[in-house]
Amino acid sequence: MRNPNDVFHLAIPARDLDEAFDFYVKKLGCKLARRYDDRITLDFFGDQLVCHLSDRWDREVSMYPRHFGVTFRDKRHFDNLYKLAKERGLPFYRDLSRRFEGLIEEHETFFLIDPSNNLLEFKYYFDDRMMY
């Protein structure tokens, strides 16, 4: 089992590190941990995201099979991130919507798209038993 002090690590391709820095740090509000010529390492909502400079980024955008993001326990945090994304003009792949209405897994979700076509999903379940 994961210790709450451990950090999840995800590495994704980035076509341009300056674009990635602008999107994740300046606009989305992530903290820059390290920067090298070939990657930036970020504090992505408490976990580690590494954007590796690569020419193998997705040219065609598709939610499946690959996207990543955060499921919020606190609705205020979810709402605040959505508001920040709107205010800062972050590019949405899918705007705010509600899925599975009337079912226990009902949740709100939105998708952002970064400059390298990586899709980020943010969601909030109304019943926190559905977090996993």
UniProtKB/TrEMBL annotation:
InterPro entries: Glyas_Bleomycin-R_OHBP_Dase, Glyas_Fos-R_dOase_dom, VOC_core. Residues 6-125 form the VOC domain. Pfam families: Glyoxalase. PANTHER family: PTHR39434, VOC DOMAIN-CONTAINING PROTEIN. This is VOC domain-containing protein. It comes from Alicyclobacillus vulcanalis.
